[in-house]
Amino acid sequence: xxxxxxxxxxxxxxxxxxxxxxxxxxxxxxxxxxxxxxxxxxxxxxxxxxxxxxxxxxxxxxxxxxxxxxxxxxxxxxxxxxxxxxxxxxxxxxxxxxxxxxxxxxxxxxxxxxxxxxxxxxxxxxxxxxxxxxxxxxxxxxxxxxxxxxxxxxxxxxxxxxxxxxxxxxxxxxxxxxxxxxxxxxxxxxxxxxxxxxxxxxxxxxxxxxxxxxxxxxxxxxxxxxxxxxxxxxxxxxxxxxxxxxxxxxxxxxxxxxxxxxxxxxxxxxxxxxxxxxxxxxxxxxxxxxxxxxxxxxxxxxxxxxxxxxxxxxxxxxxxxxxxxxxxxxxxxxxxxxxxxxxxxxxxxxxxxxxxxxxxxxxxxxxxxxxxxxxxxxxxxxxxxxxxxxxxxxxxxxxx
Length: 400
Description:
Elements: H1 15-21, H2 47-54, H3 69-82, E1 86-90, H4 93-102, E2 110-114, H5 119-128, E3 135-139, H6 144-152, E4 157-161, H7 173-183, E5 186-190, H8 195-198, E6 208-212, E7 226-230, H9 232-246, H10 252-284, E8 289-293, H11 303-309, E9 316-321, H12 324-334, E10 339-340, E11 350-352, H13 364-369, E12 376-380, H14 386-398
Parallel strand pairs: 2-3, 2-4, 4-5, 5-6, 10-11
Antiparallel strand pairs: 1-7, 6-7, 8-9, 9-12, 11-12
């Protein structure tokens, strides 16, 4: 049987092909690995060309704070993987999420957000927004009546994470998106825990998706980067002016590193998810453990939401240890393979104590509102052999 002709339209490729070849722009030298255009500025053929480019009447690059060929390759590749019309990359994940929520808002606006968020996101909403005259209301992400009530009061933007940091809470993205459409509010989703490999919020009705590309997209703990993805008009009208003038740009080198990381992201995330599911089952049965959170375990309180939205349970889990912070610290200190580190999405297994690291800026009351207490440990599962990790975790738990 003759082979079917291949498509030259990257939008028709499978995700694995898009992750390797999407957005490729080769120079006159025909390089196989994407080139790093490590320059801050660009020369013009004439003053007239400079004027036209700066006015947006002629395509081309003008300054690397606005964009670079390497960053453009990354943006095009992420658009294909996410199914988005437009993407802009930033210097960090917080550069992306802070821009995603601040750029569309003005004094007098109102935000509704899930209670369970990354610590820095909670800090921005609770501490910085009031300085700008912007009100924020937090709701239980799994309580659809609360979403309907607070969004129905009127708001301009809604922010959620699903799975949320650090206890992997779930939010029904499609249901919240429907409420946002009715209210005329933008829905921004931080999708860093799931990655586009396992969940695509734009397909579920979100308006904007944000990432820390530092995590699974790089995947090997090397550089900081972030990404904002949305439709073309919102990007052009709202986000481009903000990003150009505020300046949270991604360096060409960091963009190149993330480009190379994307080539193996699907392989890594799928393998790490299988290992994480095995470890979650192992940990859950140990007598030193009070509770375990893993999105695709049936005992997760938001299992049905995660099962519906995510292709697998992902690479992260959370463990609550009997004995509180003392037990949590002794468990972390007892690990011999996994590292104590507040990063995630790495090929190396990393574990941290959220109450004293990623969420330390939040008060005990704010932590308690998202179900977090000092007994919890967050684990980002890497690519080590599952038997070695099982022995490492068992040894640290047995010592308790």
